[in-house]
Amino acid sequence: MKADTPRIEEYLESIYKLQQDEHPVSTSRLAEHLKLSAPSVSEMTKKLAQKKLVNHTEKGICLTQEGNRIAKKVIRRHRLSERLLTDILGFRWDEVHDEACRLEHAISPEMEKHIEESLGNPKTCPHGFPIPDENGVIVKEKLRPLSELKARDKGIIVSVFEEDPKMLQYLASLGLIPEVCVKVEEVAPFGGPLIVCVSGSRYALGREVASKIKVK
Amino acid sequence: MKADTPRIEEYLESIYKLQQDEHPVSTSRLAEHLKLSAPSVSEMTKKLAQKKLVNHTEKGICLTQEGNRIAKKVIRRHRLSERLLTDILGFRWDEVHDEACRLEHAISPEMEKHIEESLGNPKTCPHGFPIPDENGVIVKEKLRPLSELKARDKGIIVSVFEEDPKMLQYLASLGLIPEVCVKVEEVAPFGGPLIVCVSGSRYALGREVASKIKVK
DNA sequence: CCGTTTTATTAGGCACACCTAACTCTATAT
DNA sequence: ATATAGAGTTAGGTGTGCCTAATAAAACGG
Ligand SMILES: [Mn+2]
Ligand SMILES: [Mn+2]
Ligand SMILES: [Mn+2]
Ligand SMILES: [Mn+2]
User: Full-prediction pTM beyond 0.70?
Assistant: First the structure.
């Protein structure tokens, strides 16, 4: 019954992430996210369905309860790895994604526990996303994208949904990282940029990027 | 030219280790060490020879210069991983081998550097074996197996060549770990046990085990 | 010296995870 | 209404890394 390869973990993790904004996930989006051909994903999806890890209907792909459970375990290992990399090994937050994506498949339950304890039971990854607990429970906060704030609204950055290192580095250079307080000064009309104020400085920020920054 | 899979790394690492006491390594020993069938190893050896990573003659298998270079890089990552596991993540020395054997294939050159620096440039793994530097240079000391000491000889334990967790735990419980001073009180004749004195206590130790403990 | 054991290889096959090319079906646009 | 674009699958194929069964060659013991 123990039928879990690194690749299966990778698929489940991707489906989980994509499910956040597209509930039944489409084959094509999944293929794009995994950087694989559509037929490869189509085939693997069939195997995942056989193993009862996903339901595959005309609407798209959904994780089953079991698939969800495994996905959250992988995400837990991914986010703990990221914290290990930044907090203990001195990586920057823009360098950790690819490293963690490899590490997450090489971490035993014992190591998971040891990392968690050594880090002092962190609640989030360096990008502000919650680390599922050992039972897969995720604490979810009600958040708003920065892009939806009105002029003069304030918020505290909780998470930054961005994997591109260049962009992450740029955001960090502006001080746009979790736990930081940000104020929207102006919102340009017609989908134009936001003028935001963060730790005393004023920056223009595109809507696209702003929508990836979640505040509370 | 970049043709390096985790399995190839594993083979090269095993060959390197076996070469320590059997110079051209035999297929059967390699198969035994890797816990694979002889034909699997025979086949892979052919591929390694094609890639110029080993020379395969009637005498057996030897690493080429390039094979040696890669093997040492893998061993470097293995031993750095072990140190990370014990020194930072709080594992015991008997728990780290299998973990490190997975981690060593998931560590980038950047991570290698970061681990090394975070650990304060350790010179050995928890079992006392030297960590090759970034250029693959290994500092080799002249060592004697504990089993070859005469009665009343003293030595400082440098390394313990043992992978079985049970045995490692046992040795640690006796205080037989690197950097510890050990004195041979008696040597029983006919290949019998040694009576050793370590940190004030006296223990009987089989020849077999004693030969895996290297002292200076 | 000959039979037995050990060692190594060949042959054939399988699971996994990927690919391209070709096809079907649906949504959309003119 | 028909042409086109997009999404998804089927078919056929590849490379990697493992297996068992059979075979060949070498080493050893009496
Ligand atoms: Mn991954
Ligand atoms: Mn993260
Ligand atoms: Mn390994
Ligand atoms: Mn070691």
Answer: yes
